[in-house]
Amino acid sequence: MFAPLNVSPSPLTLKEPNNTSPNFEAIAARPEALIEVIAARQLLSPWQFYRLCQQTCYAWRCDRLYFGQLPLALSQSFPVRELQRFFDALAIPIGWFLAPPKSTTYHLCCRGHRLTLRVAYVGSGVVGRVVKISCLTGESWAFKACFDSQWVWQHGIWAEIPIGLYLRSQGVSQNIAQFEAAGLTWMLWEWIDETEKPENRSGLAYETLAQRAHLTRLNPLNVSNYNLHGIRLDPGGIQINSWGRRWRDGIYTLGFYWRRLQAVGWRFLSPHLNLKSLGYGLRRGWRLIRGC
Fold first, then answer.
1. For residue range 217-233, what is the model confidence (pLDDT) as tens digits?
2. Fewest 10 Å CB contacts: which of 75, 83, 86, 190?
């Protein structure tokens, strides 16, 4: 799971709870628990989060970690471990195969438990793909898998999981989708309908936390990352707004494109070679030049 990857651009300085904490037994029961506690207290960079996962897997002699909690509609209907294994398997065709997945119905069965899940393809981006997972009760979630889950940068698995854990702990949910659960190759997020409006949702607005914690502003130019009423669907790119961040982000973005070019050739850009993407690229480039 962990190969030698890109070097972290920032030191790992974290405050960890000591063994006098009242929740120490709960923390010690799961390899992921300590990371979740740290991620709830501070926004971890992708490189910090990757290092913690690497250290935890080494210490616990495991190659899989699972974060958050599966929605009750799933966890109360089917064994959690089996659902996690199912999502591990589902992430392979969604994130690795060249062709987008077809809509499929899965009938899961384990030790007398049965669960039917409908998986419908939603769309692809530069970073990965999204499918909509629905159960018979009518509840739905956004399931995301990345094309290159081994590359550590400001988007994808290593960025979005700590962002989701931190935003959830801070009560941010008014204008951004909530994180539910994740493995090291997939993420499960709240499903946001096009009709949903921020004013009808509880919780803190992202901008309030961003101002208080010195986080980056959301990018409003990429309209595919929002529903019709401005609720953010994808938290990728959120980070502490530090000096030199844009240069670092640019370097790691070029690294991602280079890896994708080596893996699949120029075809990975084909869905984005259109006037809409060109217009976004020009507007985004102009904002970066102006320092917005």
1. 998 888 889 999 999 99
2. 75
